[in-house]
């Protein structure tokens, strides 16, 4: 289980709220895995991620455009790679079924996304807003 840290906040309520929503879903999946129910939960988690990434990445990328974020293209690339990972995992589950390996991969993907992308890459968006003194 991962607890929300204030350091994950980028200072934009909409984005921070979406990030917290992802953490809730991640913790639900962790809990299911801990209780040997990861296989049952994986499809629901993947469905959530597909919907979440469409809405969240759109919001975040529009914000980056609005603030003239200098690393927009690179950030969009990491978003696209995450979406691709989710789609590949979903395809694997559809064609080969749910396995321990697929649940572990989803756990690692989500944990890495939270700990690395949100706390490091997304934090740069907040830093950019603060540096420009823009209210969002």
UniProtKB/TrEMBL annotation:
NCBIfam families found in the cross-reference section: bact_hemeryth, hemeryth_dom
Signal sequence, start to end: none
Acetylation in keyword set: no
Species the sequence originates in: Paenibacillus typhae
GO MF annotation: an example: metal ion binding
Domain called Hemerythrin-like: residue spans: 11-125
Protein known as: Hemerythrin
Annotated coiled-coil segments of the chain: none
UniProt keyword Iron, yes or no: yes
Family recorded in the similarity comment: Belongs to the hemerythrin family.
Keywords (A to Z) from UniProt: Iron, Metal-binding
Stored CDD domains: Hemerythrin
SUPFAM superfamilies the UniProt entry points to: Hemerythrin-like
